[in-house]
User: Which sequence fits this backbone?
């Protein structure tokens, strides 16, 4: 079945450091890929997405590029802020699932940014 | 509010008791999902409702778990004869049902503790 593997945390960085959170996937079809973020005390929310190979999703200074050849969708940010402290989830939605938006999530990576 | 509403936010119960968790999706959203978030396990898909179609129950872990969605709106997840391993945060999400957008709107979850 479809699956998502993301780097285990927790990740602790200083403010203005560079962030990479690795994500790779296995899918039977041609999935869309997503990053969701869960801030402390809040529900998950969509951060960015990409629906086809070589697409780059971006939002709030975060970026991720859909790499079909390496089945990866790594999340990056050039300069993190304390407010970026959250849990980040990589996810996929398989286009062969008959139109279902059922998402398969990774286990999440907790990021803490210190001032 | 306009977001996904879940109740109760916290539930402590004794092993063997039944529990009901409620989800009120965003008005107009035709798709509704239940996920379970356990420590270190990420988000586990439980069940998916889309309009009047038969629900996708493929993620329900046992026959003690059931869910219904009345009138295409509010959903109730029922866990019968709870076990300690059922302790988790149960997340509800809704979406427009627009294929490929991948944007699910999550509630803040119901934290279940089984003693």
Assistant:
């Amino acid at each position: 079945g479809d699956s998502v593997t993301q780097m285990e945390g927790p990740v602790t960085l200083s403010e203005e450091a560079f962030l990479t959170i690795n994500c790779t996937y296995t899918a039977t079809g041609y999935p869309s890929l997503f990053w969701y973020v869960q801030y402390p005390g809040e529900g998950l929310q969509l951060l960015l997405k990409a629906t086809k190979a070589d697409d780059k999703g971006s939002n709030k200074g975060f970026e991720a590029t859909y790499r079909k050849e390496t089945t990866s969708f790594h999340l990056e940010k050039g300069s993190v802020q304390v407010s970026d402290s959250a849990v980040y989830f990589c996810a996929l939605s398989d286009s062969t699932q008959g139109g279902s938006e059922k998402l398969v999530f990774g286990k999440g990576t907790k990021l803490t940014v210190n001032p | 509010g306009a977001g996904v509403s879940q109740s109760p936010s916290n539930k402590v119960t004794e092993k063997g008791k039944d529990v009901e968790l409620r989800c009120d999706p965003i008005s107009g959203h035709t798709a509704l999902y239940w996920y379970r978030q356990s420590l270190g396990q990420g988000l586990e898909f439980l069940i998916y409702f889309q309009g009047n179609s038969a629900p996708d129950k493929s993620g329900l872990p046992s026959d003690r778990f059931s869910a219904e969605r009345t009138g295409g709106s509010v959903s109730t997840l029922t866990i019968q004869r709870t076990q300690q391993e059922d302790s988790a945060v149960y997340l509800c999400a809704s979406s427009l049902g627009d294929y490929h957008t991948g944007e699910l709107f999550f509630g803040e979850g119901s934290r279940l503790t089984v003693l």
